[in-house]
Design brief:
With about 350 residues, the chain is of the alpha/beta class. The chain starts with 10 loop residues before the first strand and ends with a helix. The chain is built from 13 helices and 13 strands.
């Protein structure tokens, strides 16, 4: 019997109507040199029932490749919002961070000598966000997402660990949010008020002394009121000393009670904002999805690893086959592929195909 639960109901993000509450979470995929493969993946996610595909962070270096990916999603009945980032500046951060801070780690973010961003560089980042949002709109995307979690530039402005500035970009929360508000204003000037602009927000760092949920929920309120159309709740700065436990990719999630480990954060954010709230973080079972959305702790769920292995998972669940996702959260898609510069895919399936 087909499942008609709350997670399969339509929802609106700004002017974008999404057919259900399932989101493919943004993930770096190393597919810039193989745009056809990316289009195939995104198309299969849409045809498999995913309502909204959020791409991994992009600078749109390959315009035609991205046009193909967007068209593939639309052809299969889904919506797509590319996640956009500015160009990174090597050896610079909002301010200087001591080398012993767990922000740094060999696998995730190796330490190197660095300096604070200049005012000109900060304004340059903001201009790049605006230009890339305009490209996304011109290619037919349904919206964009700003990556403001983990080690992304907006998160580094938000966390007091990485932003120790004493100018207009640092200090109290209102100043540390200036970067987010200014980039949103610049984006709106290029894409208009109706084009959906979402924010992936790290609401708490995994590092002691860092950004805390008390400020995270306030930041979500301020930024939703400023004009972001949805907030995707995730982790802030990662803790390299904890391995995967210090990242949003916690391993070995085998039971429903281990899932949705950012749920309490999304509940806190949902209490503060009137826009749709999306929660990510280890979601592998339909029971968890129904519980999270049914309780009002979030409006949508964002999944990556489970959907990477099973692009048709949503339709499987909708058809009545509600068995848990087959992904075992071994994270070898990251350790054996992404961190070695290889394209993102399920490592176990890849290994099986080569056996």
């Amino acid at each position: 019997m087909e499942n008609s639960g709350i997670m399969f109901r339509e929802i609106t993000i700004g002017s974008m109507a999404v057919k259900n509450r399932f989101v493919f979470a943004a993930a770096q995929d190393h597919l810039d040199s193989d745009p056809g493969r990316r289009a195939g993946r995104f198309g299969s996610l849409a045809s498999g029932g995913v309502g909204l595909v959020i791409s991994g962070a992009t600078d749109f270096a390959d315009i035609e490749g991205w046009r193909g990916a967007i068209e593939a999603v639309h052809k299969n009945g889904g919506k797509i919002a590319p996640q956009i980032i500015p160009d990174k500046i090597k050896d610079a951060l909002p301010s200087v961070v001591p080398p012993e801070c767990p922000f740094f780690g060999p696998a995730l973010y190796p330490y190197r000598e660095h300096r604070p961003y200049t005012e000109e560089e900060i304004l340059g980042f903001i201009s790049q966000y605006a230009a890339r949002a305009e490209i996304a709109k011109s290619l037919g995307a349904d919206g964009v997402e700003i990556h403001g979690a983990h080690h992304a530039i907006p998160m580094c402005f938000l966390s007091p660990l990485t932003n120790r500035r004493d100018d207009r970009w640092g200090g109290p929360l209102e100043n540390r949010l200036r970067f987010h508000r200014e980039l949103l204003s610049a984006v709106r000037a290029r894409v208009g008020a109706e084009f959906p602009v979402m924010l992936k927000l790290g609401v708490e760092d995994a590092i002691p002394g860092g950004f805390r949920l008390e400020e995270g929920r306030e930041a979500a309120r301020i930024l939703s009121e400023a004009g972001f159309d949805a907030i995707e709740v995730s982790q802030g700065l990662m803790n390299s000393s904890l391995g995967f436990e210090g990242t949003p990719l916690r391993p070995d999630i085998r039971k429903p009670e281990q899932e949705a480990y950012f749920r309490s954060w999304s509940r806190a954010v949902k209490a503060e904002v009137k826009k749709p709230v999306i929660v990510t973080g280890g979601i592998f079972s339909i029971e968890t999805v129904e519980s999270v959305i049914g309780s009002g702790d979030a409006d949508m769920v964002s999944m990556c690893r489970a959907l990477l292995r099973e692009p048709g998972l949503v339709d499987r669940w909708k058809s009545g086959d509600t068995h848990r996702a087959t992904c075992i959260s071994c994270n070898k898609c990251t350790t054996e592929l992404l961190l070695k510069g290889q394209p993102l895919e399920c490592f176990l399936d890849l290994k099986k195909s080569h056996a």
